[in-house]
Amino acid sequence: MSLESMAERTAELFARCFGHAPRWIVAAPGRVNVIGEHTDYNDGFVLPMAIERYTVIAGDRNDSREVTLHSVTTGETATFNVREPLTRGEPSWSNYVRGVVAGFQQRPIKVPGFDAVIASTVPFGGGLSSSAALEVATATLLEAITGEKLEPIEKALLCQKAEHEFAGVPCGIMDQFTSILARENHALLLDCRSRTTIPVAMTDPSITVLMINTNVRHKLADGEYAKRRSQCQTAASALKVPFLRDASAKALKAGRSKMEPIAFRRARHVISENERTREAAWAIQAADWATVGRLMYASHDSLRDDYEVSCKELDAVVEIARAISKENGLIGCRMTGAGFGGCAVSVVRTEAVPRITHQMDEAYERKTGIQATIFSSRPAAGARVLK
Ligand code: ADP
Ligand code: MG
After folding, report:
1. 237 φ/ψ angles, rounded to the nearest 5 degrees
2. pTM here?
3. Which residues lie across from 58 on neighbouring strands?
4. How many angstroms separate the alpha carbon of residue 131 from the centre of ligand 1?
């Protein structure tokens, strides 16, 4: 569905729920991380792009102290009072909105009561960041409602804080930064330490990015994520650096005896992934797709073997991609997001998209018994006010 028709439908629903047309319509995209996985909390580099999947909110002030939210996706309505101190509440998805409202109030920016209808084409829990899209869309709506525009970085940090404090997810800054700062036809090389971004042109129409959703999500994800973070910190301490971002491959080799084998392998992933990410940014800019493909496969192998955050379904997708091969237009593929399910990302020749989609679809179902969801996207622009 195009963004325009999504906006129209959301506005129609708003009119049906609240009896008049919405004053504002905003959109914020999901994102896919092309390369640079589990590097963000090590102060390292990531290379995401926004995708043409959006969370759209139609909204208006309502001259009361009540916020009424209707999510088309969950079919639920949430209400809370902006004059009372904001806390976590039910339904759980309303916490992303509550957290962003609380962030505005802490500025302090006075937020009036408002009505909103929320629709989204970003799949939930697939590693394409429907959560950041919801936070950023909410912040964009609140900017419009209050007339107070935030600096993009301040806005991203406000949304991240909402996710930390109201959803209880200790996420990095990549998702919110991308959903706000992304540019059409560009990926974004983000330095998670300095929080600087470099747009990386990805204009070549003969190249397409495919998202392959395994449609599985294994339960151990949250606990394992916390473990990986602490293993990285252990490795960094052994190497006497604040973060693994500060360690080189050479220093790691020299320090190998100072750490457990498991910490060594975790560090080897992070240090090599930081290198691959910067190299991939150059390669994309230079349209050197063979190098991009090689780096993506190397990233996957490292995540599977050294970092141990893949799963059999993600490995199946990457094996199928390898078998389809570069000669048939499939340039590179890797798991994307935190792991243990969710999506793989693949770079393919545009002319081969229908054939590759068909082959991937069939082979994945044959191997796993599960139906994948596959879609393509150009690098999209960041959040905006549509009306
Ligand atoms: P991801 O960000 O990878 O999609 P998360 O678990 O971080 O996965 O976030 C998914 C959660 O975000 C959903 O379970 C839901 O609570 C919330 N969410 C995202 N978009 C919407 C929406 N349109 N309506 C209601 N809740 C949403
Ligand atoms: Mg998320």
Report:
1. -60, -45
2. 0.96
3. 25, 117
4. 4
Instruction: Give me the pLDDT at residue 223, please.
Output: 84
Write the pLDDT tens digit of every residue in 288-332.
999 999 999 999 999 999 999 999 999 999 999 999 999 999 999
CB atoms within 10 A of CB 270: 28
- Whether 220 shows a pLDDT value over 80: the answer reads no
> Which one, of 253, 226, 228, 229, lies nearest residue 239 by Cα?
253
Identify the burial level of 137 via C-beta atoms within 10 angstroms of its C-beta, where 0-12 means exposed, 13-18 middle and 19 or more buried.
buried
Q: Are 214 and 372 in contact (CB under 8 A)?
A: yes
**Cβ atoms 291, 283 nearer than 8 A:** yes
Write the pLDDT tens digit of every residue in 7-41: 999 999 999 999 999 999 999 999 999 999 999 99
Look over the chain and give the mean of its residue pLDDT values, rounded to a whole number. 97
Residues constituting the chain: 387
When computed from its CA atoms, the radius of gyration of the chain, rounded to whole angstroms, is: 21
Nearest CA to ligand 1 atom 11: 131
CA 330/CA 354 separation, integer angstroms: 12
Q: How far is the CA of 171 from the centre of ligand 2 (A)?
A: 8
Smallest-distance ligand from the CA of 33: 1
**Tokens 């604040």 -> residue:** 242
- How far apart CA 23 and CA 31 sit, in angstroms, is 27
Instruction: From 310, 312, 93, 133, select the one nearest 221 (Cα to Cα).
Output: 310
Q: What is the pLDDT of residue 169?
A: 87
**Residue 201 DSSP class:** E
pLDDT of residue 170 exceeding 90: no
Q: Give the pocket of ligand 1 (CB within 6 Å).
A: 55, 71, 73-74, 92-93, 96, 118, 120, 124-131, 134, 169
| Residues acting as catalytic residues | 175
Span from the CA of 232 to the centroid of ligand 2 (angstroms): 21
- How many angstroms separate the first and last alpha carbons of the chain? 18
Q: 233 Cβ partners below 8 Å, 6+ apart?
A: none
18-50 burial, b for 16+ CB within 10 Å, e for fewer?
Answer: beeebbbbbbbbbbbbbbbbbbbbbbbbbbbbb
Residue 354 identity: P
Nearest CA to ligand 1 atom 20: 130
Residue 338 and residue 332: Cα distance in Å, rounded? 19
pLDDT at 222: 75
